[in-house]
Specification:
Blueprint lengths: L18 E5 L2 E4 L7 H14 L16 E5 L3 E5 L2 E5 L14 H13 L9 E7 L5 E4 L11 E7 L2 E5 L9 E5 L4 E4 L8 E3 L14 E7 L3
Antiparallel strand pairs: 1-2, 2-11, 3-6, 4-5, 6-13, 7-12, 8-11, 8-13, 9-10, 9-12
The protein binds N-(carboxycarbonyl)-S-(naphthalen-2-ylmethyl)-L-cysteine and fe (iii) ion (FE).
Length: about 220
């Protein structure tokens, strides 16, 4: 058995570093959002009042197990016509809610910590995983500017993140993500395949019975 560097993430080591390189330009910042978690979740609740959770359709006609919404000038949508960024929420016909200031601030700070200075996201996709919900291996390539990083924030129930290569067949590593963890993905790691294993049932004080993930992006 090959021991991978990411195996160490499972070790319950009180002296573990709070920043862990998943790749040359992918940095896991454990607990980076912990102090802001409640503020971020209030932001999510506010967004959901205007742009409700929905299960989008894939171009193949399947309903995604992850419920989604979004905020910012643009957000990601999927339907029978394909994947794209849109300025209007197709469910309500209205613009997406404004991005809460706390989202953009945290994203800029995390990106800077990983060496991406001046990151100004214009889109935030918000994913909600009920127990059993998952995201199969994919690349994020619908953004115009692939030089900008993506910042992801994990809230609530833990999940196992799949971290693959730049081809679908390359074996993916498993990375546990917990409440408050932030990951910055950019540069040479921007087009890596990635996914999320089915979320296990549980209860988290901050979110109840689900995991919420924010991904902050530069879409145009
Ligand atoms: C690696 N979401 O919304 S976030 C997605 O936990 C998505 O909800 C997952 O994949 C989630 O597209 C993973 C981590 C993530 C986001 C974007 C990436 C990892 C990435 C882009 C390039 C490489
Ligand atoms: Fe993705």
């Amino acid at each position: 058995m090959t021991k991978h560097a990411v195996d160490d993430l499972f070790a319950d080591d009180p002296h573990a570093p709070d920043a862990f390189a998943l790749g040359a330009q992918a940095l896991l910042l454990r607990g980076f959002a912990l102090a802001q978690a409640d503020e971020l979740l209030r932001g999510v609740a506010h967004v959901v009042q205007e742009a409700p959770w929905r299960h989008m359709q894939t171009p193949g006609g399947q309903s995604m197990s992850v419920a989604m919404t979004g905020c910012g000038p643009l957000s990601w949508v999927s339907d029978r016509r394909g994947y794209r960024y849109a300025g209007l929420d197709p469910l309500t016909g209205r613009p997406w809610p404004a991005m809460p200031a706390a989202f953009a601030r945290l994203a800029r700070q995390a990106a800077e910590r990983a060496g991406f200075v001046g990151f100004a996201p214009d889109a935030c996709l918000i994913n909600r995983y009920a127990p059993g919900a998952r995201m199969s291996l994919h690349q994020d390539r619908d953004e115009c500017d692939l030089t900008a990083p993506i910042v992801s924030v994990s809230l609530g129930l833990p999940a196992v993140f799949l971290w693959g290569g730049t081809t679908r067949t390359e074996r993916a590593q498993r990375v546990p993500l917990a409440h408050g963890d932030v990951v910055v993905w950019g540069g040479v790691d921007r087009l890596r395949y990635h996914g999320v294993l089915p979320v296990a049932p549980g209860q988290h004080p901050a979110t109840g019975d689900c995991r919420i993930n924010l991904t902050l992006r530069r879409a145009r």
